[in-house]
Write a structure and sequence with these properties.
single chain; 509 residues; 4-hydroxybutyryl-coa dehydratase, domain 1; Butyryl-CoA Dehydrogenase, subunit A, domain 2; Butyryl-CoA Dehydrogenase, subunit A, domain 3; six-stranded mixed sheet; 20 helices
């Protein structure tokens, strides 16, 4: 393939939309979606992604979202391996741009889950030692995905029903799967519907020289209905067996894949004035059901290595750095919103108000410092990548999530009655109501219309059903706060400080 042809692999927005018209099976409210690029529940999020694809070709943003490879071909940064401090800074600029464009509420951008797969390459020697037969697929897949501008989803968690039943079996001392057939196992939870066996947890059902057949289900499936392929694995299982310890990437339209979407929280029928965030669309979450899905060998990155989940903290560090970057950008935008709010309602001169705004500024500054520190203390991986410091990333995410509800409350508190009394565009356009609304709501620094759309933004960010979904998602995305703190406790090396204290106090060894 010539360089000229490779250079055209950067898709436009329209080409991305067309790539999603592939016969995928997506369900919403008991009905299948014929075209995800047009359905109200999925179209808006796809349009947001399509804008990013178009920005790859815009001279003003091309260098932010793409880079020139060593072979002279321009490619997306989504699949770029960071090897130098400049590479990390360059990738961060891409993340920051996409986060600003979506106000930080569209977490699964075009480059997000790609970072997890890049992590497999960053720790390639580790994978080679434990799953050599499939580790050979890692670098070729990244090349394929880069040249085809592939957008990934990452459903890796298990449905709560299976987690509950599996936990009960564990308490009874029954292994999740006894692959040698020598005793009772969790296959007693398998269910047969219309001749199809549905296992409780995702596992390989049978094998051939060309690949494997997989059945089961995964959540949360964020963006799965709106992307090209899915990274599916059982890394969240504490003790998977060889036939359930799999890391694979499958196209969304694979035969046997069925996506069941949650109720949308976007409001595509509303105007941008009335709902600046939710009217644009959202990343839709879904249950990913797999029924006898064939996965060719070249799409399997690891199989049978039951310990891979224990290394996810390192492999997934770039993804978690991506999340920390997005949270940092969102915090900085919150400061901008608050400054506009307190200026617009005339409260910025009050010391108490300034203290509360400063609290959000402090939050944003600490996240920015954590982000920079994670890059300054970056580590070299076995695979030759430069990886943001995982411990600092974990601490930054823990700090961000612990205070996130408080920051949201500060936006609500400082906006006062504004988000409660909001007016529609039709109200302002009405010949009788419009002039009166303008008179009663105009401030020294903002027109009534501008103040109203600002309060609509605060509502969308803090109080709408969409805001509720985002807050819950932030808390559980990449593990909740208690897990992060447990990880910090277990991973932090306090031995040096402990030894110094003991020596200082002249304690016996």
């Amino acid at each position: 393939m010539t360089s000229e042809k490779l250079a055209t692999r950067l898709k436009t927005g329209d080409e991305f939309r067309e790539s999603l018209r592939d016969g995928r099976e997506v369900w919403y409210r008991g009905q299948t979606i014929d075209d995800v690029t047009r359905h109200p529940s999925t179209a808006g999020g796809i349009d947001i992604l399509a804008q990013a694809f178009d920005a790859q070709h815009d001279p003003a943003t091309q260098n932010t979202l793409t880079y020139v490879r060593e072979d002279g071909i321009r490619a997306t940064k989504a699949w770029m391996m960071p090897r130098t401090p400049e590479d990390l800074r360059s990738r961060r600029e891409c993340i920051e741009f996409l986060a600003r464009e979506t106000f930080g509420v569209f977490g699964r951008q075009m480059d997000m889950i790609a970072t997890t797969q890049v992590g497999m390459a960053a720790y390639l020697p580790l994978i080679e030692r434990h799953s050599p037969e499939y580790a050979v697929n890692i670098l070729p897949y990244i090349e394929y995905a880069s040249e085809n501008n592939v957008v990934l989803a990452g459903p890796v968690a298990d449905p709560q029903g299976w987690r509950s039943r599996g936990s009960a079996l564990g308490r009874r001392g029954i292994p999740l799967y006894d692959t040698d057939g020598g005793g009772p196992d969790a296959r007693e939870l398998d269910l047969e519907i219309d001749g199809t066996v549905l296992p409780g947890g995702m596992r390989v059902m049978r094998r051939s020289p060309e690949g494997v057949w997989v059945s089961g289900a995964k959540v949360v499936g964020s963006l799965a209905p709106q992307c090209n392929e899915m990274l599916v694995s059982n890394i969240a299982l504490p003790d998977p067996t060889p036939d359930s310890a799999i890391w694979m990437i499958i196209p969304v339209n694979s035969p046997g894949v069925r996506l069941v979407c949650r109720e949308m929280t976007a409001t595509p029928e509303e105007s941008f004035h009335d709902h600046p965030i939710t009217s644009r669309g959202e990343e839709l979450d879904s249950l990913v059901i797999m029924e006898d899905v064939f996965v060719p060998n070249w799409r399997i990155m690891s199989l049978g290595w039951t310990e891979i989940g224990r290394h996810y903290g390192l492999i997934g560090a770039l993804e978690h750095w991506h999340t920390l970057t997005k949270l940092c950008v969102k915090a900085e935008l919150f400061v901008g919103v608050l400054q506009l709010v307190v200026d617009g309602i005339g409260t910025s001169h009050r010391p108490g108000v300034r203290q509360l705004v400063a609290e959000v500024i402090e939050y944003a500054q600490v996240l920015r410092a954590m982000l920079i520190a994670s890059e300054a203390a970056a580590i070299a991986t076995e695979g030759g990548a430069l990886w943001p410091n995982p411990m600092i990333i974990t601490a930054g995410r823990s700090y961000a999530l612990g205070l996130y509800p408080t920051i949201i409350h500060r936006l609500q508190e400082l906006a006062g009655q504004g988000p409660i009394l909001r007016w529609s565009r039709e109200d302002f356009d009405h010949p009788v109501l419009g002039p009166r609304l303008e008179w009663f709501y105009e401030s020294e620094s903002l027109s009534a219309r501008d103040k109203n759309i600002l309060m609509n933004l605060v509502w969308d960010l803090t109080s709408s059903s969409h805001a509720g979904r985002v807050e819950i998602f932030e808390n559980v995305n990449g593990f909740p706060l208690p897990y992060l703190r447990e990880r910090m406790y277990n991973d932090y090396d306090s031995s040096g400080a402990v030894s110094h204290v003991r020596r200082f106090l002249r304690m016996a060894d």
